[in-house]
Amino acid sequence: MGQRRFSDRSIRLIASNRSRSMGLAAVVLLGQLVAVGPASGTVSLSAARTELFYSASADPDCSKFSKITDDTQLPFNVVRIRATVDGAPAEQIRYLWSMLKNSQGILAADLDLPADKTSAVAGLCAEFGNACILTEDKLPFYNFPTILLIAPTCDVLPTDTSKRFRGGSMGIRLRATAGRRKLGKSTIKIGFGRTAFVTLFASVLNKVGGSRTPPTDGLGRRRPIASDINPHFGAIIDSQGQLLPDIDGFVFDSGGGGSESVGPRVCSLDDSAVPFAACVYNSLYKSAGKVLPSVQVKFKDGSALCDNISLRILSAINVIRLNVKVTPRRSTYPSESPVNLRVSATNISDRETGSNILLTGGGVLTCQESLTIGTAKDSKTTSFDLQHCSMTTTQSCFTDADCDPSFCQDCQANETCLTQSHCSAHTDQLCAHDTDCDPKICSSCNPDETCVQVLATPEITVPIGKTVVLIDKPVTVRNAFPDPAKIKDLWTVNPFNADSDDVTVKYGIRGQRGP
């Protein structure tokens, strides 16, 4: 039935009619008057993508996203929700957006915010928050037909890692009004973390024997994986057949306060034949207890994939014993005498309370040598290092690539892997003895430089009851002075997870008699 309009004269005539038909006329009149405005509208929500990845960051860039008009070109962690509302002119519609209860994620303004006004609060000397993010108290003021939904970050991963986390969903509701009229409401659900996966694997050392366990993802385990202080981690990506964005890098978080960022690189965990997309080998824990390490695959568009695993870092009372043996053993040697130097370390920890002992980085072994000839005295310290990066001495390495900032988060640009003995200040100058670092031979060297001896391995694990040989080589002792030399060597081993141990060796070297 078409709409009808009544003049003021018609209304007055009906109102003055006091016949029995007055009530019916009034009802008809009221119905016609209500029909003057638009009927109740239809509200619907749509999205070009109904499944998202995780977000690498909780700090979205609304200006950047608002300029992407093709919804299918938004990052894999962002979706634009579009509202279609009928029943009122567009300028009269009020859009009331909200998140459904227990939904995770972020609602953001689909607006090109000025670069100098993206902070929510700006004081005299600092800025706080992000005006792009529509918090619950700001949503009532957002009155636009499109809104951005940002997937949650990896912080939503559950602590129960015995079963695979298959992601979740986020519900968005819109209520539309025109003045006091309710035009309708609609909801839409968007999933996250359900279409592609990354799986974190761990390989740990056996308590006795020194061998590593096969890599495990921890699925199906009711208890955390019992681990030593140096588990190795690897990640495998399952794209589920879909095309993934370009990978920016992998972030391995130890769950114990440290993290390591590496680039994608096919690698292996110990003796496993399984190829991994990225690996880290330097997640060293300094305290015992349950930890929840995780991995985040960061894509260049800002999206991410995530996984975690439960470990229990075992507590231990570790004791190391340093052994220094000189063959032949004499109180005094003739000058130019050949001797054999053997330095070893033994893990004498109790099998019930101890664990593997780790040697890694610079200065794992030092020798402080004191010399006395007559009334003259001097001393010098020689350092024996394992292979490590040139500036980040705690980072073990095989090649220069291991010291690249894209692989080693703490490393600096242009670091190299020190795999050969080198002068203490000029690490590019190779040496065999301290004299090789003397300015007479090395013109760029400093007068007090020493030769740092590098043991050709990135790290050494000493299982309980086992002994590892650190040095075993011939050495020629020499004294070019006429007076005898008295020498005292203080050898010290510095493990990562045990107290240091030292050994003192005293001997003399006869002087050179003139002709």
Which helices and strands, and how do they pair?
Blueprint: H1 8-16, H2 22-34, E1 43-46, E2 51-52, E3 54-55, H3 62-66, E4 78-85, E5 93-99, E6 106-108, E7 121-122, E8 127-128, E9 146-150, E10 168-178, E11 181-192, E12 197-203, E13 225-227, E14 232-238, E15 247-253, E16 259-262, E17 278-280, E18 289-291, E19 294-299, E20 303-308, E21 311-313, E22 320-327, E23 332-333, E24 337-347, E25 357-360, E26 365-373, E27 376-386, E28 388-389, E29 417-418, E30 422-423, E31 451-455, E32 459-462, E33 467-477, E34 485-493, E35 501-509
Parallel strand pairs: 2-11, 13-21, 23-35, 27-31
Antiparallel strand pairs: 1-4, 3-20, 4-9, 5-10, 6-9, 7-8, 10-11, 12-14, 14-17, 15-16, 15-19, 18-21, 19-20, 22-24, 24-33, 25-32, 26-27, 26-34, 28-29, 30-31, 34-35
Describe the protein.
It is built from three helices and 35 strands. It has 515 residues and is mostly beta strands. It has four domains: 36 residues, no CATH class; 150 residues, no CATH class; 117 residues, Immunoglobulin-like, CATH 2.60.40; 190 residues, Immunoglobulin-like (Sandwich). It has a seven-stranded mixed sheet, with no helix packed on it. The protein has a five-stranded antiparallel sheet with strand order 3-20-19-15-16, with no helix packed on it. β19 and β20 form a beta hairpin. The radius of gyration is 37 Å and the shape is elongated. The N terminus is likely disordered.
